[in-house]
Amino acid sequence: MAVLLKGGLVVTPGGAKKADIFIQDEKIAALGKLSPDKACDVFDCRGLVLLPGGVETHTHLDLEVMDMHTADDFSSGSRAALAGGTTTVLDFATSFKDETMAKGISNWHRKADGKTYCDFGFHLALVDWNDALEDEMAQTVDEGISSFKFYLAYKGSLMVDDGRLYRAMRRAAEVGAVVGVHCENGDLIATFVDDAVGKGEIAPEFHELCRPAVLEAEAIERFCRIGEMAGARHYVVHLSTKEGFDALMRARARGSDVAIETCAQYLLLDRKLYSEGDFYDKAKVVMSPPLRTASDREALWRGLASGDIDFVGSDHCSFYLHGQKDHGLHDFRLIPNGGPGIELRLPLLYSFGVAKDRLSLERFVDVVSTNAARYFGLYPKKGALAVGSDADIVVLDPTAKWKVRQEDLYEACDYTPYEGLELTGRIVDVYLRGKKVVEDGKVIDDPPSGRYLARSRGEDLR
Ligand code: URP
Ligand code: ZN
Predict the structure, then answer these.
(1) Does residue 152 have its Cβ closer than 6 Å to ligand 1?
(2) How confident is the model at residue 256 (pLDDT cuts 50, 70, 90)?
(3) I need a labelling partner for 375 at 20 to 30 A (CA). Which of 204, 326, 334, 449 fits?
(4) Closest Cα to atom 9, ligand 1: which residue?
(5) For residue 236, is pLDDT > 90?
(6) Residue range 452-462, pLDDT digits in tens
């Protein structure tokens, strides 16, 4: 059945304007001042804001870490995504040590296919680089995975050395792939952790104290230099510090085209959470990189508003406090890193960005949807309210006020680090390819109808 959304404030690639949207055959068929000339459902959207569905750049669904599976798999995680206005998720498929790319990708299809409620694609995270992977990369890109991730942190498990990263980026340049990197100096973190544990410093707050801001800035500086030498398109995942941001601005000033992702937690939560409450309160926010200071957050908000930071992901990597995070009750090294955030990414950015006049509505849409679609090869199918685009549409009430409560969320995790926050702006309805999948805040699409997205090589943002 065709649908007409009438009278909303529509955020189009040309700016926000009052318009009607006509949806037919999964696509936006017309946009402007329209009248229902054929049988269709008509919804009055006066007073509401219409956005392109969110494109989430950074999740870990159904990931196994230290013999524990994340609380959210593709089923619960993607329902949470839809409830929060995200209609496309890019998850980090991973090829672990000695696995081929094809093996990692087929493992991730097994986790996601038929279980995912929103549309989805994969980046491919790699923990090594060798001749076999070199040979496989072109085919992987041709088959629709055009972005790869490496870690400069997690020594002894996920980390690669600079030489391997350089070689991988040289190959990425040849085949037109993008390389994203987790930038923290893993060698120094391992040293600081050994020193801390040697002194009996095993409480959760030492996770943060072993990962100072300078280790992010150093790794960013190094990564940008390696990327410049290799000539590959590259981006920094989950930027958390002002020092790192400054290093990125220096790289751009010397001609680098590095792109930047940050995450909602680095825009909103403070490192003082590591010194408040009991083990459980602190373990909630054990993530890498750790939370930072007010001056870091100010730099990140400024970077978002100015257009220097390109997208906001969630790094949704949820572990239960009870039964998973508490494995590290007596040793912070055993706390699985990460936290939930897939469902609140748009609501948080709208409330603390647009409603607080830090971001224009257009800029908000850029950083939660459009830029990611462009950079990761999904635009204009995704990331735009435009004729011919998929009818992935978020209907938001800009004046509604509500309070975050974990028990109201679709995320499976037993906590949210945003508990109790008062938000302005509530997602009312969500359409996925023209089908209403969220109504009045509730997910109504059952069974799952998310589709896998093979991506093209994407485009530069500046
Ligand atoms: O602590 C985090 N972020 N865990 C997920 C893996 C990563 O580093 O992105
Ligand atoms: Zn991550």
Answers:
(1) no
(2) very high
(3) 449
(4) 315
(5) yes
(6) 999 999 999 99
Mean pLDDT score, 259-277: 99
Tell me how many degrees the CA angle 96-100-101 measures, rounded to the nearest 5.
90
Q: What confidence score (pLDDT) does residue 411 get?
A: 98
Q: Which token pair is 25?
A: 């055959």
Looking at the chain, the whole-number percentage of residues with pLDDT higher than 70 is 100
Q: Which of 337, 342, 413 for a ligand 1 pocket mutation test, highest count of atoms within 8 Å of Cβ?
A: 337
pLDDT confidence of residue 223: 98
**In the predicted model, what is the mean pLDDT of residues 61-71?**
97
Which atom of ligand 1 is closest in space to residue 237's alpha carbon? 9
Q: Which ligand is nearest to the CA of 319?
A: 1
Check pLDDT > 90 for residue 38.
no
Q: What are the tens digits of pLDDT across the range 413-443? A: 999 999 999 999 999 999 999 999 999 999 9
At a CB cut-off of 8 Å and minimum separation 6, what does 416 contact?
340, 341, 344, 404, 406, 409
Give CA–CA dist 175/339, Å, rounded: 34
Q: What is the chain's Cα-based Rg? A: 21
Categorize the per-residue pLDDT at 207 as very low, low, confident or very high, splitting at 50, 70 and 90: very high
Question: Contact, 382 vs 119, CB < 8 A?
Answer: yes
Ligand 1 pocket member 285 (CB < 6 A)? no
- The rounded Å distance from CA 60 to ligand 2 centre is 6
The two tokens of residue 341 are: 């955030």
Cβ–Cβ < 8 Å for 94, 123: no
Pairwise CA distance, residues 143 & 155, whole Å = 31
Q: Is the CB of 338 under 6 A from ligand 1?
A: yes
